Amino acid sequence: xxxSLVLPAADIxxxxxxxxxxxxxxxxxxxxxxxxxxxxxxxxxxxRYVGPWLFLVMLLVxxxxxxxxxxxxxxxxxxxxx
Length: 82
What we know:
Layout: H1 3-29, E1 30-35, E2 44-49, H2 51-81
Antiparallel strand pairs: 1-2
Helix pairs in contact: 1-2
């Protein structure tokens, strides 16, 4: 197996997994609460943001971006060498 193709492929797989995990963490980072109407106050939905989950999303997206940049750099370097 050619090592110069395995590492970029692993970077792309890692990036896809990181983005999928980031989507899951984003859903965990948003909490919606339905508040019923009381008296003169109408019903509404309150959204609460959970900081640690959203911070993890930011780290995962940054890591996925770095992995894609690394994969592209390795492929460009390989094509220039051949």
